[in-house]
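Inputs:
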Amino acid sequence: MISMKELAQHCGVSVATVSKALNDQSDIGESTKIRVKQAAEKLGYFPNAAARSLKTNRSYNIGVLFVDEANSGLTHEYFAAVLEGFKVEAEKQGYDITFINGQIGKKKVSYYEHCKYRNVDGVVIACVKFDNPEVVELLNGDIPVVTIDHINENCSSVLSDNVKGIESLMEYVYEKGHRKIAYIHGQASTTVTKARLTSFYRFLESRELSVPDDYVLEADYLDVSQAMACTSELLDRKDPPTCILYPDDTALIGGLNEIRRRNLRVPDDISIAGYDGSRLSQILNPRLTTIRQATSAIGMQAAKKLISTIDKPKTTFTEQIIVEGELITGESVGNANIS
Amino acid sequence: MISMKELAQHCGVSVATVSKALNDQSDIGESTKIRVKQAAEKLGYFPNAAARSLKTNRSYNIGVLFVDEANSGLTHEYFAAVLEGFKVEAEKQGYDITFINGQIGKKKVSYYEHCKYRNVDGVVIACVKFDNPEVVELLNGDIPVVTIDHINENCSSVLSDNVKGIESLMEYVYEKGHRKIAYIHGQASTTVTKARLTSFYRFLESRELSVPDDYVLEADYLDVSQAMACTSELLDRKDPPTCILYPDDTALIGGLNEIRRRNLRVPDDISIAGYDGSRLSQILNPRLTTIRQATSAIGMQAAKKLISTIDKPKTTFTEQIIVEGELITGESVGNANIS
DNA sequence: ACATTTTTCGAAAACGATTAAGAAAGATAT
DNA sequence: ATATCTTTCTTAATCGTTTTCGAAAAATGT
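Outputs:
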């Protein structure tokens, strides 16, 4: 509210001196520095973000690009949790968060232009179609970027450890005696699904196992009815699986409903496992066996990496950061009666 | 990227003229206006937000204050959905969204100071403890504010119609023949709970009904185990209710688990109803009877109201906007065998 | 044709900060 | 004592806009 000029007058020095004092610059006397700082404290001075941003080209503002194709946006449980983790860490480091979109006033612009318009210091991208030309423009632009759950050459990314996730899930299921394991996976086009699927097959390979081709089905993430249909298909087989893995905890509900419709019990008649470790998974009965993704850790790592590349571009590596999840052994996977 | 100065040079006019042309000011010739506009289009000019904000004290930026006490933040399903609705409408009107927090750089400041620092044009407040001194400071400050699900004298607010919500839920349950209706409600201290509870009692009154005092219990919103305990208490009575209303769909799961633990069936043995109309409620089996709160409408109304008070403070009323929800008749409330 | 009004444009100040360059004062060296 | 170097501060330019005010040009009136 009080400007630097007023603060300077109050202290009987020039604005330049005030600026230097507040920013701990070198060419300033120790005594005046503390005098100015105390006055600033007393008068409740704080800088004007716009003026500073205009002059320094640093906004201490980070753009968030979250454009779910299903328009679920912030209601996407997983990404909302990641964003929350990101937000907490960024704010701790003095950065604010602004959503990036495709408009300036009433005019349509690209995401990149919007970033330039707001002069964000960096951008975190998640939950978008990465082949969108506007996203590509942003990835190849001159603004520091970190992506989440997607690998890109030009920038760092933070990834949930889907390989280890599926591996430990399979390990657990295998130890419970299951051999006839079906996997309903999400959209095959995504980085996430590719990792999980490869891990699935690699595990089978390592145990010299194999499953029928049509034990492996595709159903969109979070889509209950598709998961239900796939489950039905699996249960209709003459050799149905003893355990089914789902794309995520929500989609799993579709399977669970179908299972219950057939008067089968979980886990006595059939075992199921989800992915995500959502809130839902732990309040259901039976509690789900699932992989809890470390959402806040993912968000935090992304923020740390992004801010690091902003603050110290010369000494920050471009890298992929893998964040491990955690197996939650609920009650939805039982012992397989090995017959 | 290209500045006004360059654009002016390119057009052979002064920056003042460019500014006037782009902002559709009066003292500018029609022909030069379109010439400038076309050049701006061609060269991909867009304004610098910081410079504009500095000069005009308008940032076209709206602050969002979302400080859940449980630190669930963005993972709060209801408020995340409201925020998403808010975001969509605000962006449509050319405003961006920034989160408000308690820091500038590494220094702790109040929410109000943070708003001033970022020069936001307005603030939407939701999901906070409204008796927090910092929130009060913001409410009484000179920045336009809209609150969500909380009434305050100084500003407009948008409220979910909890009165009508409970009323239509009760109406439905009553028509199904239920008379022994228990209500597990959320924290009694909140505006939301007060409205619902009053509506509950008023409905009973209107039908000249009454229920035992301890049919009405308190359990925190979203708290599964508390809801479970309350449910257990209710079912242990010698005259248990035939229908139980829960604080929300999530808490209801606690009740559902307890009910199933006792080998009771929903809705045959007991009826239950939730609140929120969450995603969860419609994928469960049986589908829940619940009140869907019109989250995106609430967010949209809040954005419209806030932007209106920003743009036209003189002609915008301070008012409470009530947004109706919608009864979702699932399958969790059955006919009561009136004995 | 001259005065007056209206329209259209530009010069310059301002918003609140940062920063390069220079000036004044004090300290050190010769 | 003079020259040189440091330290500490100020002046002034700058970032990219908007906006006031005055000037020039065009339109209007008489």
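Remarks. Chain B touches chain A through 56 residues (CB under 8 Å). Residues 3-5, 15-16, 19-20, 23, 25, 47-48, 50-56 of chain B lie near DNA strand D (CB under 10 Å from a C1').
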